[in-house]
Specification:
The protein has three domains: 195 residues, Efflux pump adaptor protein, beta barrel domain (Elongation Factor Tu (Ef-tu), domain 3, Beta Barrel), CATH 2.40.30.170; 70 residues, OB fold (Dihydrolipoamide Acetyltransferase, E2P) (Beta Barrel); 117 residues. Helix content is 30%, strand content 35%.
C-alpha cells in the first residue's frame, strides 16, 4: 500500500462526470477543466488521550519482592483524591518482613547478653582492683624499710611484695580497659547489624503500607496498556516503578495515531490534520502534528507491518465526546492546494522531459505544452498552460480526432 493521495471532492466529481458522460467520437473520454482543491493525504488511525495526565505507578520501594494485582478499580471510574485505585498483594513480602523481624529480635538478645556480660566482668574486675588496692596499701604501710631495725632480707621481701601489689593493680586496670574496648566493639558490630535490619524492616513495612495505591487527586481512572495492548488486570505480576494507569486532565485532549511506514512519505511535524471519532464519523476536528517517533514499530510482535507513532494536538476539545481511549481516524495533509487546476495523470503526455496535454478544439486535438506542479497517484497540478473551461482528452484519441500541431 502506498500513500493515499486524493483530490478535492468537487474536482473528483467533475473528472468522473466528464470521463463517464462524454466519450467523444474517438472513444477516448474528455473533460472540462474546473478549478478545485488538490490534496495529498496520509491516512492514520489511533485513539484519543489526555495531553497531560498523572501517572499512577507501583511504589519505587517495591523492589524487594514480587507483587500481584489483587484488585483494580474499573476503568473510566471517576475517583476522588485518596481513593484506592489498585490494591496489590505480596506473600513474599510478608515472609521477608517476618524474617527480618526475627533476625532483629535475635540481635537484640545478643546485644543484651553482651551488655550483661560486660557488667558482670566489669563488676568482677572492680572487686579485684579494690582488693588489690587494699593489699597494696597494707603492703606499703607495713613494709620494712629501716635497716637498723629490720633484717635486709625482710626489707627486700616487703619491697618485692609492694611492687607485686602495684603490678596486680595495674594489671587489673589494664584488663578492665581491654574488656571495655572488646565488649564495646562487639556491641557496636551487633548494633550495626541491627541498624541494617531496622532499615530493611522499615522498607518492608513501607512497602506493605503502599500496597494500596491511591489517587493523588480527583479524576477519571484510566488503566494502562502493556506492550501487547493488553490492559492490566487482577492476577498480573507487577514491579517497582511500573505504570499501571493514569488520571488524565480531560480539559485538553490529543490524538495518538499510527501511520503505516509505507505511507509515511512526507510526514513531518506541523502538518495540518483532520480527525473523526469512530462513533461520530460525520463530524471532523482540526489538529496539527506535534510529534513523530523516529523509528517505525509493529503494533504487536506477530505483525509484519510497522507504524510510526504520531501525536496530533487538537484545535479544540469537546469534553462531551472526547474521552481517553476513544478510537479515531485521521487524515494528515501533506499538500493541500485550493483553487487550482489538476488533471488526471493519464491526460499528460511526456516528451523529452516536457509535459503536454491534448486540448479539444472542435473534432481535433491540439497538443499543448503545460507546466506541472504537485503530483499524486491520480492527479497532477497544472500551474501554467490550461484555463478553466477548456476541454482536454484523457488519453490520445489518435487519428480519429485529427491530432494537430502543438498550440
Amino acid at each position: 500500500m502506498t500513500v493515499m493521495r486524493r483530490a478535492g471532492a468537487f474536482l473528483l466529481i467533475a473528472i468522473l462526470a466528464a470521463a463517464c458522460g462524454r466519450p467523444g467520437g474517438s472513444g477516448v473520454a474528455d473533460m472540462t477543466i474546473r478549478k478545485g482543491t488538490f490534496e495529498i493525504v496520509i491516512p492514520a488511525f489511533g485513539e484519543l488521550q489526555a495531553a497531560k495526565s498523572t501517572a499512577i505507578v507501583v511504589s519505587p520501594e517495591s523492589r524487594f519482592a514480587l507483587q500481584t494485582i489483587a484488585w483494580i478499580a474499573p476503568e473510566y471510574t471517576m475517583v476522588k483524591s485518596g481513593d484506592v485505585v489498585v490494591r496489590l498483594a505480596s506473600v513474599e513480602l510478608e515472609d521477608l518482613l517476618r524474617t527480618e523481624q526475627a533476625e532483629m529480635a535475635k540481635l537484640n538478645l545478643e546485644i543484651a547478653q553482651k551488655q550483661r556480660q560486660l557488667e558482670k566482668d566489669r563488676s568482677d574486675l572492680a572487686g579485684e582492683i579494690s582488693v588489690t588496692a587494699i593489699q597494696r596499701e597494707l603492703a606499703d604501710v607495713y613494709a620494712a624499710r629501716d635497716e637498723t631495725i629490720f633484717p635486709r632480707n625482710k626489707i627486700i621481701e616487703d619491697a618485692i611484695d609492694l611492687d607485686y601489689q602495684n603490678f596486680r593493680e595495674r594489671h587489673f586496670q589494664e584488663r578492665r580497659a581491654e574488656l571495655e574496648k572488646r565488649i564495646a566493639a562487639e556491641i557496636q558490630l551487633l548494633q550495626a547489624k541491627a541498624r541494617t535490619h531496622e532499615v530493611k524492616i522499615k522498607q518492608f513495612q513501607d512497602q506493605l503500607n503502599s500496597l494500596d495505591i491511591r489517587a493523588p487527586h480527583d479524576g477519571m481512572w484510566i488503566i494502562e496498556k502493556r506492550w501487547n495492548g493488553e490492559k492490566y488486570h487482577v492476577g498480573m505480576t507487577v514491579y517497582s516503578g511500573l505504570k499501571l494507569g493514569s488520571l488524565p486532565d480531560l480539559s485538553v485532549m490529543e490524538a495518538k495515531i499510527f501511520v503505516l511506514e509505507s505511507e509515511a512519505s512526507g510526514l513531518k511535524e506541523k502538518l495540518s490534520a483532520s480527525l473523526s471519532l469512530d462513533f461520530e464519523p460525520g463530524r471532523t476536528f482540526g489538529g496539527k502534528v506535534v510529534g513523530i517517533d523516529t523509528i517505525a514499530k509493529p503494533l504487536n510482535e506477530d505483525s509484519p507491518l510497522k507504524y510510526f507513532e504520531t501525536k496530533v494536538s487538537l484545535d479544540a476539545t469537546d469534553p462531551r465526546l472526547m474521552k481517553p481511549g476513544v478510537q479515531v481516524k485521521a487524515s494528515i495533509f501533506v499538500t493541500r492546494l485550493l483553487d487550482v487546476i489538476a488533471v488526471p495523470n493519464q491526460a499528460l503526455l511526456l516528451d523529452q522531459d516536457k509535459a503536454f496535454v491534448l486540448v479539444k478544439q472542435g473534432s481535433r486535438a491540439r497538443k499543448r505544452p503545460v507546466e506541472t506542479g504537485a503530483r499524486s497517484l491520480t492527479l497532477t497540478v497544472i500551474t501554467k498552460g490550461l484555463s478553466e473551461g477548456e476541454e482536454i482528452y484523457l488519453g490520445n484519441p489518435g487519428p480519429a480526432a485529427g491530432e494537430g500541431k502543438a498550440s
